[in-house]
Specification:
By secondary structure, this protein is an alpha+beta fold. The chain is built from 1 helix and 2 strands.
Amino acid sequence: MGNGFALAGIIIGAIGVITGIIALIGLIALIPFSQEVIEFCQTAGPGVQEFQGQEIDCSQLMP
């Protein structure tokens, strides 16, 4: 009967929901790491610092 647009809408919506759930899980997983970085920058001071093998610019995180 021509349900192509309805089917496409359902598929695109499902993909959007799945992508949103994955993004939310990723953001929740980053919360502890970001708190560690903020605490590190408070003790290390501003400037580029090395934290767990990665260079982090603490001057952007410090107010």
